[in-house]
């Protein structure tokens, strides 16, 4: 099966709602290449380009992509096969009114820094349709003498919501602006399907980002994302929120107004999976999770914040 | 130099204050074995032993240990050389009024579960003074069929405070109940010295604990901790809070009322280290940290919560 390419030039959304019109329709099992532009729609091309306040439209998500056969109550599995950079530079910025240290002494906003990407000394993403591999690529930030490994991730990925509307700046149960380092090549993310066709969209990729995304961005960059989508009908568990699978762990992902509330939700999801697997009550699963299920910070800025609870596969087989 | 043993039977504290009377005095560079009892002072020996509410005295910290020559403004370095279990079982518990999911539906408190420890099928810590190695040891939780690797850590470690008093239940700038998985063998922790002699104390060890310590405990257990202590005079940086060194990273550790506030403090510390190293202003260090400095959760329950910011050594040489 050849990959079908879906470009952000065909369509992109800035809001996840219950009713989304697809720009493409694919079968369950389809392999896709989803092209995305940088989260700031190309507004930052040099350090003199700055963003004074959070734009009304940010984090363009290429799509929506209708997946045939997906019905409410199903689960949509998205395998992230590869993420290739399609620009030779990203950008990391501060914006007034945004970010963990907004308003702190010595923290200036707006500021923009360009992050050139190199692979064996060759610029990545030359614009001719050929894209260098990123496995050995590094980026730097102008003014700092350090090479940072390129580890691309998807910032915003989600589906049509159950009833609410969320801009692509906000993460919630439909996914959205999760800004989670585990949304990288080799991992899968599972969503509860709320609407017929699921209506998948993604964008807002980073060439690198730390857990926390403290200033409010990673190294924002255009990409081509290879994904495989699959509908899981009649799943054994009722999924309420996104769930990430890595080679080592299952990670329920929860967003909320505070990190504490997000921790509660992610832990609750984790212990329900552990309780079902080990046939114990939720209290015993809670005690067990306190020994094995690491709480991890995804992001602290979006303005809902996101946390995941990493349960090693040694203690949890496939929940579906 | 032979190791000097300091036992919890000689002295232990339940509160870190500015004025602490030492039970031992050692030189800078001393190698010590610090014996600790479990955080609940042996109250839980079977599942029928439960704790109805958080005890007034918990997390006995063996010490205080006066380190000769330590003066306010210095830094105390504590290398954690080894942590050996001295019991063949730990315990993980829920307590009413404590823990991330306290009061949630289906979460019962009090409950106690015993966590037997095995090493190649042999019980660890036979009470005869011989202690099995823990590198290949596992523990289990009664009722759940899973072996969990034994990865011992120090829950409570700290020094005399600047001016406040904190029980050993609470973490703050003096250390205290940090409940941080990185407080394990092979790592070092640095404290700002607030009082002459530093007055180091430690206890509250766990045979295993997840990042978060969601139920409020790990597998609480008695241990013998090998440490090396050293006074760093006239340090190049002014340390305000604990700093952990692992083989890969420097990790400022911050505690606060909320995870958000703790994230702000740990990030602030990290970017000040990065700014000094790379000779850039704090804003550029902030943007750089957002690409490389992972926020990590230590614990969410104590009742101040603790977070660390992990800056890879690739970007930060020794700050002292």
TrEMBL record, chains A, B:
Domain of life the protein comes from: Archaea
Region ranges (Disordered): 115-135
GO molecular function, one term: hydrolase activity, acting on carbon-nitrogen (but not peptide) bonds, in linear amides
One matching Pfam family: FmdA_AmdA
PANTHER family: FORMAMIDASE C869.04-RELATED (PTHR31891)
Protein name, per record: Acetamidase/formamidase
């Amino acid at each position: 099966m050849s990959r079908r390419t879906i470009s952000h030039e065909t369509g992109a959304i800035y809001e996840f709602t219950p009713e989304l019109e697809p720009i493409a329709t694919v079968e369950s099992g389809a392999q896709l290449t989803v092209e995305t532009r940088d989260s700031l729609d190309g507004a930052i091309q040099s350090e003199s380009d700055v963003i004074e306040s959070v734009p009304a439209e940010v984090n363009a998500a290429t799509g929506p992509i209708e997946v045939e056969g997906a019905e409410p109550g199903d689960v949509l599995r998205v395998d992230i096969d590869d993420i290739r950079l399609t620009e030779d530079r990203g950008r990391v910025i501060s914006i007034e009114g945004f970010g963990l240290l907004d308003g702190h002494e010595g923290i200036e906003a707006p500021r923009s820094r360009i992050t050139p990407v190199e692979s064996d000394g060759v610029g990545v993403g030359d614009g001719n349709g050929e894209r260098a591999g990123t496995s050995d690529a590094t980026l730097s930030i102008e003014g700092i003498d350090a090479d940072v490994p390129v580890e691309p991730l998807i910032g915003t990925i989600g589906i049509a919501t159950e009833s609410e509307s969320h801009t692509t700046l906000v993460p919630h149960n439909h996914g959205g602006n999760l800004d989670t380092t585990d949304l990288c090549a080799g991992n899968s993310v599972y969503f509860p399907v709320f609407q017929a066709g699921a209506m998948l969209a993604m964008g807002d990729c980073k060439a690198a980002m730390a857990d926390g995304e403290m200033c409010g961005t990673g190294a924002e960059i255009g990409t081509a994302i290879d994904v495989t989508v699959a509908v899981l009908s009649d799943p054994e568990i009722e999924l309420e929120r996104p769930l990430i699978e890595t080679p080592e762990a299952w990670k329920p992902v929860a967003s909320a107004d505070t990190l504490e509330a997000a921790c509660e939700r992610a832990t609750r999801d984790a212990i329900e999976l552990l309780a079902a697997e080990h046939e114990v009550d939720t209290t015993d699963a809670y005690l067990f999770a306190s020994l094995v299920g690491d709480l991890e910070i995804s992001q602290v800025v979006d303005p809902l914040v996101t946390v995941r609870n990493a349960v090693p596969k040694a203690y949890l087989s496939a929940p579906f």
